[in-house]
């Protein structure tokens, strides 16, 4: 992976013939007590939260990759105007990176939570991506997507997938169960690297890389999410796979290495 450029809300990298961007949709502050030990006791971060001892700040990241202006895919699209005003800034990040929203024809969603899907619309209800023709989504996440009434117009664009489905010769859907129904990762194989866009595998990187057994109260099934995290972190460390996570600290993409009983994250920046 080669570093190309960085602005406040966008990081550009290259891997072989591919370009990969990390794009910030903003951040959200959530209760630190949502981090839990396996026995459901409240967890503590290994580093203090960024604002105070009651909240932990989660970055909200989206990712885009393409090859020579073709095969362009946006992974997740942020919160739009559906949540806190600290989110919904994907358009600004894309402008910083010089990416025209009309160039996006395919979005791949990791799951159907609002901070990943509602950025399909502007706060006043207009489509963000005017030329969008396909929305890849886990089959079990379709129901959650359609539960958002404002997104009903996108139903004809939905293309459900399951783990193991190959979207193209370079892109594989990877099931990451536990956090949400149909939670899906996407593994990109370039000429040089493998990059796993892993959605909400990790919520609090300062704690969960060192202690992968720590869970998050917003996980649909904490025990399954824990097992997924432990397995995928081990696989990524062994295979030297790059991880790109929705809530990893900006820029949200890097590699992990074994560090004692846990892991250390080495950012691409």
Automatic annotation (TrEMBL):
Keyword set includes Cell wall biogenesis/degradation: no
One Pfam family per UniProt: Lactamase_B
A single GO molecular function term of this UniProt record: metal ion binding
UniProt keyword terms in alphabetical order: Hydrolase, Metal-binding, Zinc
Domain Metallo-beta-lactamase: 59-247
Family to which the UniProt record says this protein belongs: Belongs to the metallo-beta-lactamase superfamily.
Signal sequence bounds: none
Name this polypeptide is given: Metallo-beta-lactamase domain-containing protein
Natural source organism: Bradyrhizobium icense
Record InterPro entries: MBL_superfamily_lactonases, Metallo-B-lactamas, RibonucZ/Hydroxyglut_hydro
């Amino acid at each position: 992976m080669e570093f190309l450029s960085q602005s406040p809300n966008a990081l550009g990298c290259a891997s072989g013939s591919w370009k990969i961007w990390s794009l910030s949709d903003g951040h959200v502050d959530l209760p630190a007590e949502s981090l839990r030990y396996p026995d459901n006791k409240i967890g503590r971060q290994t580093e203090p939260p960024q604002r105070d001892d009651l909240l932990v700040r989660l970055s909200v990241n989206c990712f885009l990759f393409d090859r020579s202006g073709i095969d362009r895919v946006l992974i997740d699209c942020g919160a739009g105007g559906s949540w806190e005003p600290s989110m919904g800034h994907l358009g600004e990040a894309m402008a910083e990176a010089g990416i025209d929203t009309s160039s996006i024809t395919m979005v791949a969603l990791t799951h159907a939570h609002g901070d990943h899907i509602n950025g399909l619309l502007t706060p006043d209800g207009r489509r963000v991506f005017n030329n969008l023709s396909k929305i890849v989504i886990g089959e079990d996440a379709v129901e959650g997507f359609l539960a958002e009434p404002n997104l009903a117009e996108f139903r004809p664009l939905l293309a459900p997938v399951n783990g193991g489905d190959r979207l193209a010769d370079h892109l594989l859907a990877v099931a990451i169960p536990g956090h949400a129904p149909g939670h899906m990762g996407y593994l990109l194989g370039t000429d040089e690297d493998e990059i796993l866009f892993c959605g909400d595998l990790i919520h609090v990187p300062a704690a969960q890389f060192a202690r992968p057994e720590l869970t998050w109260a917003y996980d649909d099934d904490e025990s399954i999410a824990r097992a997924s995290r432990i397995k995928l972190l081990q696989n990524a460390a062994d295979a030297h796979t790059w991880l790109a996570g929705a809530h990893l600290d900006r820029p949200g993409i890097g590699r992990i290495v074994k560090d004692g009983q846990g892991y250390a994250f080495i950012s691409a920046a």
